Amino acid sequence: MVVKGRFAPSPSGRMHLGNLFSFLLAWLSVRHEGGTLVLRIEDLDPVRCQPSYAWQLMEDLEWLGLDWDEGGEAASYWQSNRSHLYAKAFAALEARELTYPCFCSRIQRLNEAPHVHEVSPSCPCAALTPSEAAARAAEKTPSYRLRVPHKTISFTDGLQGLYSQDLATQCGDFPIKRADGAWAYQLAVVVDDAAMGVTQVVRGRDLLSSTPRQLWLYEALGLPAPEFYHVPLLLAPDGRRLAKRDADLDMGVLRRRYAPEELLGILARMAGQQEMAAPVSAGQLARVFDWAKVPQEDITVDAALLTKEEKEALL
Ligand code: GLU
């Protein structure tokens, strides 16, 4: 079977070194196997996402020599144009009575934080009868949750090993549609990875705890699940994660400071693929890529990578 991977960026800011690290590993893993890659734009949240960031990201990836075979500019690979597919999946889940309307207000803004692991084991709305729910819906537009089964979902991550989560107690029924009609990340990512024939998902470790929810969605929708590799996050010298909102080591800064092969050399060393940060091309790295050398734990960015001003801002 030919492996099919993907880049799934949210265009909510300029890509930073940590995003790049995950994308590089996704690309290397696929190219090493002679597989193909999809670039899907995850612009579900109209408030945070801007098309200009997506264009910039494509240009940044091209600058580094990380190419893709499908998607990118094509409008049909942008999640904002794929609502009909999420609606269809939602209808299938509804038909199986796996969804219910939720009138709690704190989940309204959920899509703004797809990486946040919301635990809500006992949503009171789960117990509403259809007539009670209809009466409430006349007053307030609900969001919708997916019921989770009383079972432990386990899977073997290609990098992190065995991971298990008891959905009922460690996650709870989770939102799949917001009251304003926006689709939740968890639903969209599963529908899209399946529709695009993705067989391998490589992404940051912060999404490891989302994977059991996604595996439950695959099962509930009768779709085949891909294999997963959750890669380490990059940390600033003070221990916090690099983040788009802080413009940490973003591609603007990095491109001013390094040539593509120098930057790839730095990333390759962090990824355990070479001893030193010697300049290297993406193609050269792909030939020798080895998952067994990639570290499992988060990686603190070498302070020497930062300029004096950046260090002062971080410490
Ligand atoms: N779009 C998500 C993000 O930028 C990644 C989703 C995924 O890889 O599953 O964080």
Task: Please supply descriptive tags for the structure shown above.
315 residues; alpha/beta; Rossmann fold; 3-stranded parallel sheet; 3-stranded antiparallel sheet; 35% helix; elongated; binds glutamic acid
Strand order of the largest sheet: 1-2-3
Task: Give me the CATH architecture of the largest domain, please.
Answer: 3-Layer(aba) Sandwich
In the CATH hierarchy, what is the class of the largest domain? Alpha Beta
Number of folding domains?
2
CATH-assigned homologous superfamily of the largest domain: HUPs
CATH topology of the largest domain: Rossmann fold
Note the gap between the termini. 48 Å
User: For the residues shown, what is the average pLDDT?
Assistant: 90
Give the radius of gyration. Answer: 20 Å
Description:
- By secondary structure, this protein is α/β, with parallel strands linked by helices.
- It has eleven helices and twelve strands.
- The chain has helices at 17-32, 51-64, 83-95, 130-139, 167-170, 185-195, 211-221, 251-257, 260-270, 282-288, 308-314; strands at 4-7, 36-39, 70-71, 99-102, 143-146, 152-157, 161-166, 174-177, 200-204, 227-231, 234-235, 299-300.
- Strands 1-2-3 form a three-stranded parallel β-sheet, covered by helices on one side.
- The N and C termini lie far apart (48 Å).
- Mean pLDDT is 90; it is low at 108-112.
- Bound molecules: glutamic acid.
